[in-house]
Design a protein that fits this description.
Elements: E1 9-13, H1 18-29, E2 33-38, H2 43-51, E3 61-65, H3 71-85, E4 90-92, H4 124-147, E5 151-156, H5 169-184, E6 198-205, H6 211-214, H7 217-220, H8 232-244, E7 253-256, E8 260-262, H9 270-273, H10 286-298
Parallel strand pairs: 1-2, 1-4, 2-3, 5-6, 6-7
Antiparallel strand pairs: 7-8
Helix pairs in contact: 1-8, 3-4, 4-5
């Protein structure tokens, strides 16, 4: 069910920066309308929206301020797509965070700098990285069924979905979960008649040179001397392939690092076997051990 993106419409969460911005940019360049859903736009994303105004011929870009933890705002994205373009054909729940200090396993809820409130019984990281893509996928499936047309839902997972990493255990758990979720929805591409085909697949990048890393000194401390950065533009090209290529069917997870390869569900060699392992600083675990020591000494 390869889909030519020209003349189609995409909703992309987290499109204000990084990989999702690059995906929005490449789709617009191919003639695809885009609803950029994010809390805010970085300057380059603002410029992109200005480049494709709603009054111009061809592809158009619309910004919709969206908190992906708020389900009502997720519904609103689809309402905006319907109002401006008659609906969506491609839905990318791409927003994600990399275990930030404000929602972090090593900073328990109620202990600064964590902003997770024990009274809420929630981790913001889980809401953003797991609950949001699941809920968006659910809404997208209902949207495609109501329009009686096929649709594509490309996700963004990570090589962390295959590898353990002590400093960011919740992030790793979120990407393992997303891998399983994507694979479980593979049959949607081959539904019984008369249901429309819906493709759910994903990219699994290695370490990406985006503000998620470069704007966070605590994350940069984990980076080795030769981090082997992958560019967001390279990831966006593969994401385009998830929509347009015939062979990257539902359930496919494409790993992107030094090489681009399909991740097998069973007996996969992992990122290291695929040449996409990343290096870390020698002392990258020190902060975690110090956190545990402080808790032990304060007990």
């Amino acid at each position: 069910m390869a889909m030519n993106v020209e003349g189609k419409t995409a909703i992309i969460t987290g499109a204000g920066s990084g990989i999702n911005f690059s995906f929005a940019k490449i789709l617009l360049s191919k003639g695809c309308n885009v609803v950029l859903a994010d809390l805010a736009l970085r300057p380059e994303a603002e410029a992109l929206v200005s480049q494709y105004p709603s009054t111009s011929p061809g592809a158009k870009a619309v910004f919709q301020k969206t908190d992906v933890m708020d389900w009502m705002q997720l519904d609103k994205m689809f309402e905006v797509a319907i109002a401006h373009f008659g609906g969506a054909d491609i839905v990318c729940p791409g927003a994600g965070v990399y275990e930030p200090p404000w929602s972090n396993f090593w900073h328990p809820p109620g202990a600064p700098p964590s902003k997770d409130d024990p009274a809420d019984s929630r981790y913001a990281l889980i809401d953003i990285n797991i609950t949001h893509p699941i809920r968006v996928t659910q809404i997208a499936i209902s949207h495609f069924l109501s329009r009686k047309k096929p649709g594509c839902i490309p996700h963004i997972t990570s090589i962390a979905g295959q590898s353990p990493f002590f400093p960011t255990p919740v992030y790793v758990a979120s990407k393992h979960a997303l891998n399983g979720f994507v694979r479980s929805l593979a049959p949607l591409e081959y539904p019984p008649s008369p249901l429309p085909k819906i493709r759910v697949n994903a990219v699994a990048p290695a370490r990406i040179l985006t503000p998620l890393w470069t704007d966070n000194p605590d994350k940069m401390q984990m980076v080795g001397k030769e981090p082997g950065w992958v560019t967001p533009e390279a990831v966006a090209e593969v994401m385009l392939g998830l929509v347009e290529k015939e062979e990257w069917v539902g359930g496919t997870i494409m790993e992107i690092g030094k090489t681009v390869r399909e991740v097998r569900a069973f007996d996969d060699p992992g990122p290291r076997g695929g040449g996409n392992n990343v290096g870390n600083d020698v002392g990258y675990q020190d902060e975690m051990w110090e956190s545990l020591k402080r808790q032990f000494e304060g007990a």
